[in-house]
Design goal:
The complex is a heterotrimer. Chain B has 7 helices and 8 strands; from the N terminus they run H-H-H-E-H-E-E-E-H-E-E-E-H-H-E. In chain B, helix 5 links the parallel strand 4 and strand 5. Chain C is α+β, with helices and mostly antiparallel strands. Helix content of chain C is 55%, strand content 17%. In chain C, strands 2-1-5-4-3 form a 5-stranded antiparallel beta sheet. In chain C, strands 7-9-10-12-11 form a 5-stranded mixed beta sheet. The chains are: A alpha/beta, B alpha/beta, C alpha+beta. Chains in contact: A-C, B-C.
Chain lengths: 147, 210, 490
């Protein structure tokens, strides 16, 4: 269980704090790596830049991806992920405020596995997180790693 | 004819107003009488006219002979203003000749009927009818007429053989005539061919004269 | 080409020519022939008269000297004239004197009176001439001659043949000449007709008709025709350019509209994303405060934080509703015929499933049809029926109806409930966004629902209005016609 890393790509520190808090409340104790923007996320995943030297064979269990990010936005990250063999099958859950139809289409179209809307009500958010955790970290069979 | 009868003796005397009525009443009666008289007269006259007598016809012929002769060269100036059709001897025509010739003209000359006693008087005649009563004197008469331009006509037998010019012949109830051309030419008379056409015979003497 | 065909106008002209020529010729021929025949008749009479007079004068002596035989001989000379049927010499008393008969059975008049002399008569195909015979000025008799008219018929026949030949020859010549000269008339007309036909058929207005030589009505016609074509072309051109301009303008507007729409879309996107984020923070950390600092918070503090949380969440809902409302104006509308009764029933059953405990009598009219966008109409009915559901929640049992009623000629659908109703005095605020006629504590709601419904109805070109009395329920009517809504609140 401790090997399962969750990559949270979120630029808003409040949202980041609340997300982590929600996960904790649900006893999800996996390591949460936070990337503040798209570039950082990619650096981490591909072991570049600040995260050079990281063992890229160890991918996170799931990526929680916000769409509105500075520099490279969420969809751009998604595109890069899906373009690269190493991250093509990586589970990505889009976690964002908007539920505009077009945005959903874009997300799914680019290969997101799931799309969850962040509610304003924190209790609802806690409940959603619980379900997320249960599903992606426990229930879901991750794609096999390539050795 | 009938008109003359009415206007004759039966005229009414003029009188007063009452005349008209009396006149119209009498008129009817008169009309009836007159009509009857007319019818009788007409039948009598018709009867007379439907059958002309022999000498009526001959008289007409006599007149007509004169029409078919070319007198312009022949008429003597001494003849005066008339065309004389004469009869010598016993006149068989009577008033018929006069009435037939009345009012007629030949060559613009008034045609008159004359009776002569002597052949010498024939000098003033154009046409001379020699009566059969003169049968015995014929030769003498003709001799005296010689050189005169007179057309001699008669109905005595063999007239044309004996020197006469036109002889009346009775054929089938019709009065016809013969012509002796030698004699007419001798007299210097030019007869129309039309006349010759209707002659029953046109003769010439085998020898001149007789 | 039209030249080789026998167009009707050529036929007409030819027929005209032939008729005119024929009529003129016929009239001329008829006149001449008639005149000639008359003079011929006169000649016949004259001849006959001469023959009669000759016969008569030759019969004078026969008449005078009563020689009918000679007269008959004279008359028999008439045998030489084969046309003489009979002849007779009459004496002055009118009785027949001599006769001639060509044919032994011929009849002669037995009596001819003197006043009949000098007459001629045409009767039964014969002509009879009676003359008096006068010799040396004296009437001597009457001659009568009767002749047939064979010479006349021969002449007639001759004339007929001549007339026939002349007519045929003349008509033939007329035909020939006409076919040479009518071209000058028919060619321009036929050409013009053909050009007009082609122009009409192909809608090609660039074609022009060739102008015939000369300055007559035909050349005027062709010129005018060409003029008209030019005008049509110009008008077409003007029309086309106007249409192009219009199209261009339409394209511009469409582009502007699309741009506006896109801008609005990105705006909504921004709004939904950016406005919600702080709300999440507020609510989240208020929650955190409540949890983590529970000891330091007294009752008042907790209440305040709860109120903060409530307000924040409400704001989130409002944002959602507003976004929905704006989205509705932008989506494409596809009208189709649908069964509105079935739709209402399905929505009603959903509501019942959500709250099975409620005692609601549902009366939905069957078989109603409407022509509308299915998705948008669903939103309308969902709003109206859930409103009805909501506002009857205070009653133990309620009745909700859906149906159609004819109103002023146009049929209107309605949703009726016998719930709380509203004060009709404030009816004008009913469809305003965020306007509410009830307190939050009585009935929940953002106040956007009816505004949404109204917007959808207006997009369909219909009307929506409501009737109510407090505590006596409410009825919401709407139409989906092409009528433009008047004075509606947006």
């Amino acid at each position: 269980m401790n090997n399962k890393v969750i990559l949270l790509v979120e630029d808003n520190p409040d949202d980041e704090a609340l997300t982590v808090r929600a996960l904790k409340k649900n006893k999800i104790l996996n390591e949460v790596v936070v990337a503040r923007d798209g570039v950082q996320a990619l650096d981490y995943l591909f072991g570049e830049g600040a995260h050079a030297g990281r063992n890229t064979k160890e991918m996170p269990q799931v990526v929680l991806l916000d769409l509105k990010l500075p520099k490279l936005d969420g969809l751009g990250v998604l595109r890069r992920l899906r373009a690269d063999d190493r991250t093509r099958l990586l589970p990505v859950v889009i976690l964002t405020s908007s539920n505009e139809e077009q945005v959903l289409l874009n997300g799914y179209g680019l290969g997101a596995n799931s799309y969850v809307r962040k509610p304003v009500d924190f209790d609802a958010f806690v409940a959603a997180s619980a379900q997320l955790g249960l599903y992606w970290l426990v229930l879901n069979e991750p794609p096999p790693r390539r050795v | 004819m009938c008109t003359r009868v009415i206007s004759g003796s039966r005229s009414l005397p003029p009188s007063s107003r009452g005349r008209a009525i009396r006149w119209s009443v009498g008129f009817g009666r008169r009309l009836a009488t007159v009509a009857l008289a007319c019818t009788l007269l007409a039948s009598i006259l018709d009867g007379q006219q439907s059958k002309p007598t022999e000498y009526q016809v001959k008289a007409i012929y006599l007149y007509n002979f004169g029409r078919f002769i070319d007198w312009f060269t022949a008429l003597p100036a001494a003849g005066g203003d008339s065309f004389a059709v004469c009869v010598i001897g016993q006149d068989p025509f009577g008033r018929t000749l006069d009435s037939t010739l009345a009012g007629e003209l030949i060559g613009q000359r008034k045609v008159v009927a004359k009776r002569i006693a002597r052949p010498q008087d024939a000098a003033s005649c154009q046409v001379l009818f020699i009566s059969s009563s003169e049968d015995g004197r014929l030769k003498d008469i003709l001799a005296l007429l010689d050189k005169l331009k007179v057309l001699t006509v008669s109905d005595m037998p063999r007239f044309s053989e004996r020197g006469g010019m036109i002889q009346f012949v009775l054929e089938k109830d019709k009065i016809r005539f013969e012509v002796n051309l030698t004699n007419t030419e001798h007299a210097g008379l030019n007869l129309s061919s039309e006349l010759l056409k209707v002659a029953i015979a046109v003769k010439r003497n085998s020898q001149p004269g007789d | 080409m039209a030249r080789t065909q026998d167009s009707t106008i050529t036929k007409k002209l030819t027929r005209l020519n032939m008729l005119v020529s024929g009529a003129a010729l016929l009239m001329a021929c008829a006149t001449f022939v008639t005149y000639d025949l008359f003079t011929f008749r006169e000649a016949i009479v004259r001849n006959l008269s001469i023959q009669a007079s000759v016969a008569g004068s030759n019969s004078v002596t026969a008449l005078v000297f009563n020689d009918s035989h000679t007269a008959e001989n004279t008359l028999s000379a008439l045998k030489a004239a084969p046309n003489i049927v009979s002849a007779g010499i009459y004496s002055l008393d009118g009785q027949i004197f001599a006769a001639y008969r060509r044919d032994p059975h011929t009849q002669l008049p037995s009596f001819v009176s003197a006043d009949q002399a000098e007459t001629q008569m045409f009767k039964d195909g014969n002509v009879m001439v009676t003359r008096s015979i006068v010799f040396q000025g004296k009437p001597t008799g009457i001659v009568y001659v009767r002749s047939d008219l064979r010479t006349l018929s021969v002449q007639l026949r001759r004339y007929a043949i001549i007339a026939g030949v002349v007519l045929a020859a003349s008509l033939g010549t007329a035909l020939l000449l006409s076919s040479v000269f009518r071209r000058s008339i028919t060619e321009p007309i036929v050409h013009l007709a053909e050009v007009a036909r082609v122009v009409s058929r192909d809608k090609n207005y660039t074609i022009r008709a060739t102008r015939p030589a000369g300055r007559d009505e035909l050349s005027t016609l062709v010129e005018s025709f060409n003029e008209m074509l030019i005008q049509i072309q110009e008008r077409d051109g003007a029309l086309q350019s106007a249409r192009d301009q219009l199209e261009q303008r339409v394209d511009e507007r469409t582009f502007q509209l699309a741009t506006a729409n896109k801008e609005l879309e990105s705006f909504s996107y921004s709004v939904s994303h950016d406005l919600r984020a702080p709300l999440r923070t507020i609510d989240g950390f208020s929650h955190a405060l409540l949890e983590d600092c529970a000891d330091g918070l007294d009752e008042a503090g907790r209440t305040h934080l709860n109120r903060i949380r409530a307000a924040t969440q409400r704001m989130g809902l409002l944002i959602d509703d507003l976004l929905n409302l704006s989205r509705l104006s932008r989506t494409d509308m596809h009208r189709q015929s649908l069964d509105i009764s079935t739709l209402a029933s399905s929505i009603a059953s959903d509501l019942r499933k959500a709250q099975p405990g409620r005692q609601i009598e549902l009366r939905i009219e069957e078989g109603l049809k409407a022509t509308a966008d299915p998705g948008l109409l669903r939103v309308v009915l969902e709003n109206l029926l859930s409103n009805a559901w909501k506002f009857t929640s205070k009653r133990a049992s309620a009745r909700i109806e859906f149906g159609m009623t004819p109103s002023n000629g146009t049929p209107a659908f309605f949703v009726r409930d016998d719930g709380a109703g509203f004060d009709p005095a404030y009816a004008d605020r009913l469809f305003g966004a965020f306007q509410r006629l009830h307190a939050m504590t009585e009935f929940a709601g953002t106040g956007v629902g009816l505004a949404t419904v109204q917007r959808i109805i207006h997009r369909h070109g219909g009307r929506i209005w409501a009737e109510s009395a407090v505590d006596h329920g409410a009825t919401f009517y709407f139409t989906l016609s092409e009528m433009v809504a008047q004075g509606a609140q947006q």
